[in-house]
Structures are given as C-alpha cells and as structure tokens.
Amino acid sequence: MLIVGELINSSRKAIKAAIDAYDAETIKNVAKAQAEAGADYIDINCGTFVQDEEKRSRWLIETVQEVVELPLCLDSPDPKVLEAGLLAAGDKHQPMINSITWEKERFQAVLPLVLQYKAKIIALCMGDGGIPQTASERVEIATQLVEALTAAGVPEDDIYLDPLVQPISSADEAGLQTLDTIRGIKGLFPKVHCICGLSNISFGLPNRKLLNRIFLVQAMSRGMDAYILDPTDIDLMGTLYASNALLGRDKFCTKYLKAHRKGLYEKSI
Amino acid sequence: MDNKDIYQKLTAAVLEGEEDSVFDATSALLENGVNPLEIINQGLIGAMDEVGQLFKEGELFVPEVMMAAQTVSAAIDRLKPLLKEGDQPYLATVVIGTVKGDLHDIGKNLVALLLENSGFAVINLGVDVSSQKFIDAVVDYNAQIVAMSALLTTTMLQMEETINAFAAAGMRDKVKIIVGGAPLSNEFANSIGADGYSEDALGAVRLCKQLMSTC
Fold first, then answer.
1. Is A99-232 in CATH node 3.30.470.10?
2. Residue B108 belongs to what H/E stretch?
3. 3-state secondary structure of B183
4. How far apart (Å, rounded) are the C-alpha atoms in residues A195 and A198?
5. Cα–Cα distance measured from residue B83 to residue A46, given in angstroms and rounded to the nearest whole number
6. Portion 164-193 of B in contact with A at CB < 8 A
7. B109 in contact with A at a CB cutoff of 8 Å?
8. Do the chains contact at A206 and B61, CB–CB below 8 Å?
9. How close is the nearest chain B Cα to the Cα of A129, in Å?
10. Half-sphere exposure of residue A250, counting CA atoms within 13 Å on the CB side?
11. Residues pairing with B161 in the sheet
12. Which of A50, A162, A207 to mutate to test the interface with B (most CBs of B within 10 A)?
C-alpha cells in the first residue's frame, strides 16, 4: 500500500495563503503532520500560481525537504514545472510524477522525465478524446499506456494507473465504472499499481467523508493499492489499515495493530 | 380540486421526481381548461425555480436537481404539441460550454439543465470548447448569450481569449458573455470583460433573465 499525502496543494485556501506569503512554518508543519500520519510520498502542487508556478514549486520542495525525509510526488500539468521540481528534489529518493496521460502531446513531453529521473509515474486513463465514460474504454487506454511505458523502459512496478474517479452525484454508475476499470487493469497487468484520489466520488453529496471511506474499501477489494489522500484524517487511515488487513495484505496484522496503538480506532469503537 | 391545489401537487411531484404524478397534475390542469403555456410557465418552470432555490440553500443535492429537471423536461415535451404556433416558452438562445483545455462538466451541465427548464433554448457544446467553436455556434444558432465554464486556474485564462476572439470577429456587441466555475470571482469576470458572473446555477439563470430584460 502506498499513500501520497495530498495536503500541500495550492487549491486549498490555507496552503495557497502560505505559499503566497512564503510562510515556510505552515508548509513545514503540514509536511511533518502528513509524514507522522503515515504518508509514503508528499504531493507538491502549486498549480494555482499560474504566473510563477516553477519558482513557487522549487521553494515548496526545498521547504518540505528541510523537515521531512520522504520522497516527493511532483504534481503539475506543465512538464517544465515537473522538470524543475525533479531537479530541485535531488536524487536521494525515487520521485513520483503526477501525471502522464495518453494525450499525445503530454505523453511525449512527460515520458523523457520519467526515464531520466527513474521516477514512479501516475498515468491517468484518459486520452485526446477526454475522459472515457465506460470501464472498457478506460482499460483500453490503460493498456496502451502500459505497453508504451514498458516499451520505453519503465518497469511495471513504477507504473501507477489512475482509473479516474467521477462523482456519483452526476452519474449513478460513476463509481462502478471506476471499480470495473481497476478489475480490468489488474486482470491484464497484475504487477502494475492502481492509484486514485477519493474525494471526487462524493462531490455534490452530503456526508462526503463516509462515501470516501466506503469507496476506499470497495476500490481496495478490486485491487487498488495506492491512494492520494489526507493521511491526517484518522478515520480514513483507520479504515485503510483495517481494510488492508482484512484483504490479507498485512502480515501478522502489524500495520493494523500499529494503527490501533496510535489510537486510530478510539472514536469509532 | 382547484387549480391552486393541483399546482401545489405538481411542485411536490417535481421535487420528488415522480413523473407519473406530474403527468396526472398537468392532465388535470388541462381538463380544467388551463392553457398549456401557463402550465409550463406557472407550474413546471415555477417548480424548477423552487428546486433551484432549495439547491442554493443546501436543502437539495445535485442528483435531486437532475432528477427534477429530467421530470420537468419530460412534462414539457408532452405539453409542447398542444401549444399554439409561436406560443413556445422562449426567452433567448444560450450557447454553453467548458473552455478549451478543461474537461469538467458537472456544474456546466447543471446550469444548462436549469436554463433549459426556465424557457431558454440551450446549445450545449460540451467540454474543451475552443474560441472558434463558441463563435461558430453563436452564428449557427443566432444565440444571444454565451456561457463559459472553467474549473481550473490554468484554463480560466482561456475565457479572456474567447472574449477577445469575439471582439476580433466583430461580434462582441452582439452577444452577452457570462462566466462561472469554482476558481472564478466577480472581480475576475470584470477584469476579463465578461458581462456577468454567477457563483451558482440558480444565479446563472437569474443572470440570463436579467441580461435579456435589459437589452
């Protein structure tokens, strides 16, 4: 199981303000909190700073690395920002790139970075035609992505396919399409990983945290083995460790018991 | 049962998405001699206004708005053949789309649904819509309003380009351009020269009505 901590993202108001003011203290605290809560990677996204995203992202990376010994997940649609971020992050850890797609231009721009920096790569199951609605179309794009990436020399173990999560509030079967996509991918490429964010599933509905938690469990039972989430949400993390143990992926239940001792279940039981 | 009670029943049925009850209510109104256009305007569009208001207040959620809108559409479709020529509920034609580079469409589709059920003819161009496509659609459909949506800070800049493209084509005075989407604000809308901004779907409908009454 791989957890990417999603909190350092400039679309969140507090983070936007901190980046705007070069408030290193706030950023460091959020980075530390995520590391302590069990994140494996720290996502770095300052996409709302359209004018100077590159400069802001370098500052973020340096600031986070001063306090946290974790690899970073560099999150930008702009290959130039990704490259600057990969350079700034250094080669102490294996970086993760968020993300590549099967859109021709984006694929060709990001692939060289994946190879040069031997990065883990998040690949969204979408192409030039936008987001495919059905699972079979997404699996088809996933197949093309995996074949092209591995042919270029990216190990299967470094590929994290994002089956894409869309709100059930606007299409009843949106969750099901994601779940069926995961199953399709895992059937074809058992060594390739699946990753996703959760909050989109519950957009437009009340009790979002409940829906997010349950969808995490449903996705995990189909083979999802990585998430981009808020690791400081103890209910969510408790659910994740419990589900992982129940699926036989937690030897001697060590992670589950560690979560228990950290108090992740005190409220819910 | 008098018409007032039937209208109330109709609104309740729209809120519940009960298509059969909506049809029963419209049939009852027709039998009482109510003009079909009035049923659409007072009954169905009126019910949709209430749905929009409840959504704004957080009482209703996105799927419920969609359900209600679908019910109202079905009922309007059944009444349309009964309308006299030139009696169609029509306020204006709106061309709507998510700007180039952006694939988000939930909010935009919600606005399109509410507009459709408020008497506007809506041409929904979908997502990733280029400036040229907006311009072509305005020409083809003789539209009076262009509604643009963007959910990304990177793509909201595209709105200004489209507005400039309308100016370059000499068409800026011919259409009202409105914008919406999570990262936008009134200030941003003003700064790019848009004619209006709304932060929610109901507001977008009001904005369109307002723009049409002032021109």
1. no
2. helix B106-116
3. coil
4. 10
5. 54
6. 183
7. yes
8. yes
9. 10
10. 18
11. none
12. A50
Would you list the domain boundaries of chain A? 1-93, 99-232
DSSP collapsed to 3 states, chain A: CEEEECCCECCCHHHHHHHHCCCHHHHHHHHHHHHHCCCCEEEEECCCCCCCHHHHHHHHHHHHHHHCCCCEEEECCCHHHHHHHHHHHCCCCCCEEEEEEECHHHHHHHHHHHHHCCCEEEEEEEECCECCCCHHHHHHHHHHHHHHHHHHCCCHHHEEEECCCCCCCCCCCHHHHHHHHHHHHHHHCCCCEEEEECHHHHCCCCCHHHHHHHHHHHHHHHCCCEEEECCCCHHHHHHHHHHHHHCCCCHHHHHHHHHHHCCCCCCCC
pLDDT of residue A268: 60
Domains, chain B, ranges and CATH? 3-82 (1.10.1240.10), 93-214 (3.40.50.280)
Give the model's confidence band at B73: pLDDT under 50 very low, under 70 low, under 90 confident, else very high.
confident
The SS3 of residue B197 is strand
Give dist(CA B22, CA B16) in Å, integer: 10
Answer yes or no: do A205 and B128 touch at CB < 8 A.
no
Chain A contact probe: residue of B62, B113, B128, B149 with most A CBs at under 10 A: B62
What residues contact B214, with CB distance under 8 A and at least 6 apart?
none
Question: Under a CB-based contact definition with an 8 Å cutoff, are residues A39 and A70 in contact?
Answer: yes
ipTM of the complex: 0.72
Please state, in angstroms and rounded to a whole number, the distance separating the CA atoms of residues A183 and A219.
Answer: 9
Starting at the edge strand found earlier in the chain, the sheet holding B121-124 runs: B121-124, B93-98, B145-149, B176-180, B196-197
Quick one: pLDDT at residue B1? 80
> Chain B: nearest CA to A225, how far in angstroms?
26
Preceding peptide of A99 cis, ω within 30°? yes
- Residue in B with minimal Cα distance to A76: B154
**What is this structure's pTM?**
0.81
Using DSSP bridges, classify how beta strands A120-127 and A96-102 pair: parallel, antiparallel or unpaired: parallel
User: Tokens in use for B86?
Assistant: 């030139």
Q: Tens digit of pLDDT for each residue in A60-78? A: 999 999 999 999 999 998 9
Do B153 and A203 make contact, defined as CB atoms within 8 angstroms? no
Contacts of B63 in chain A (CB under 8 A): 168-170, 172, 204-205
Residue with tokens 């794009």: A141
Q: How confident is the model at residue B41 (pLDDT cuts 50, 70, 90)?
A: confident
Contact A205 B63 (CB under 8 A): yes
Structure confidence at residue B215 (pLDDT): 63
